[in-house]
Amino acid sequence: MKTSYVSTSIPYVNARPHVGFALELVQADVIARWRRLQDNDTFFLTGTDENAFKNVQAAAREGLSPRQLCDRNAAVFQDLARALDISHDAFIRSSSDAHFRGASRFWLACRKEDIVLRQYHGLYCVGCEDFYLKRDLADGRCPVHGVEPEIVEETNYFFRLSAWQKPLETLIASGKLRILPETRRNEALGFIRQGLQDFSISRNRERSGGWGVPVPGDASQVMYVWFDALTNYLTGPGYGSNVDSFERYWRKCANSIHVIGKDILKFHAIYWPAMLLSAGLPLPGTIFVHGHLTVEGRKIGKSQGNAVDPFPLIRRFGADALRYYLLRAVRSGEDGDVSAARLRELYNSDLANGLGNLVRRLEALCERSGCRPPDTRDTHVPSDVSGSLDRFDFAGALRAIWRQVQILNREIDETRPWELLKNQQAESLSEHLSAWIGAVLDISRVLRPFLPGTARRIEAGFSKSLIKKSQPLFPRLT
User: What is the per-residue pLDDT across 408-460, written as a single tens digit (0 to 9) for each?
Assistant: First the structure.
């Protein structure tokens, strides 16, 4: 059996999750569920990044310890995964003992010549947890957070990223390390070709409030959050704690993918592969990079003050409706605007009037005619659905599925089965209903990765010995 490994990034827990992370969760969940549908033994990891200095600052502002803040907010991220019906196999918290052990082991696995102690003076953005060169600033400000970076001077350990410039360029240019979409691959190559700079991988323990993974052999330092956080992709499947699981889902897995946002491309496409090469470990197969969600064209973010809470949207429209919107209305790899009005529009047009109406009218016809479910059969997956998913084009896959919904609704309108029922043409009606139910079940099975709750309801309803009209899948919103 083939194995697959799918991961999200792990977000900071300095604040509650916003709808931008819901987008990433849902996209990764579709990939994981799709691979399971193809009989892949799939491990799906998500979690939270808890060792950042911004978490220490957020805790201090609330009068909490970092542990108290992380425990409270990590629970909310777990609640979001449950609310969105995310099928993750593990939820990693980077403050856990198992992660600490694995991160320490990884540090020691890197080549000794790649980790050096240096005095450093640089421009640091707390929001990014990253140092910047002047050339990378926008009018003297962080290009992501729009704030002037702090000047930091201290002695840190550095990773010799510059030593891996040529190997990284070759890996990405050759496609051995696959980065999608193509624009992000080109962006990574452009960054490499500017000349890679060594980067700091530790922080002064005192300045960090003592919070973080201790550097092995040096009690005065803790690991830089982006060094320890990236190792979650190893510690999640068992690096340092479960040899068999790690061997299966990382070392011997040829079908692995990181799902990340475009603002952390550098860390995942450049820093992380170099670190893995230094440690002598396999690289991920694919890095899929999604865009940002915006509100009126402005990126959603905790620091921007425009974060959209996904929980009220789930309560109002339902988890599958929000999943549908994020997958259908946001083009793969691109930015997309969040709009409750647009969500409502798609809900009524596609979910209530489209799929919901199809299922409802078939249930009613079956109840009136006494039609029974057809014999089970192999699911037909349209090539335009599988082809779209192979490209991570979620909207394209859903468009292909909804074409089948439209075709069935049109066939029912043209066949006018209610007249067959009225004229007691039972044999002809039964043939039509059996074919339509089989087609709806095909749709529901292909929908499992996208709208899992909806797919379960459809399959349960049309698998009963007596099919009856149930509550609407998506009650129309007025």
Answer: 999 999 999 988 888 888 888 888 999 999 999 999 999 999 999 999 999 99
The mean predicted confidence, pLDDT, of the chain is 92
Specify the length of the chain in residues.
478
State the SS3 of the chain: CCEEEEEECCCECCCCCCHHHHHHHHHHHHHHHHHHHCCCEEEEEEEEECCCHHHHHHHHHHCCCHHHHHHHHHHHHHHHHHHCCCCCCEEEECCCHHHHHHHHHHHHHCCHHHEEEEEEEEEEECCCCEEECHHHCECCECCCCCCCCEEEEEEEEEECHHHHHHHHHHHHHHCCCEEECHHHHHHHHHHHHCCCCCEECEEECCCCCCCCCEECCEEEEEECHHHHHHCHHHHCCCCCCCHHHHHHHHHCCCCEEEEEEHHHHHHHHHHHHHHHHHHCCCCCCEEEEECCEEECCEECCCCCCCCCCHHHHHHHHCHHHHHHHHHHCCCCCCCEECCHHHHHHHHHHHHHHHHHHHHHHHHHHHHHHCCCCCCCCCCCCCHHHHHHHHCCCHHHHHHHHHHHHHHHHHHHHHHCHHHHHHCCCHHHHHHHHHHHHHHHHHHHHHHCCCCHHHHHHHHHHCCCCCCCCCCCCCCCCC
Tokens of 186: 């080109």
CB neighbour list of residue 58: distance below 8 Å, 6 or more residues apart: 14, 15, 69
Structure-block tokens of residue 88: 């993750």
Q: How far apart are CA 458 and CA 356, in angstroms?
A: 10
Q: Which residue has the tokens 């240019």?
A: 173
Q: What's the pTM? A: 0.92
Least confident of 117-121, 249-253, 353-357: 117-121
Alpha-carbon Rg for the chain in angstroms:
25
Distance CA 419, CA 11 (A): 57
Residue 303 has pLDDT above 70, yes or no: no
Residue 261 pLDDT class (50, 70, 90 cuts):
very high
In DSSP terms, which residues pair with 239 in a beta bridge?
none
pLDDT score, position 420: 87
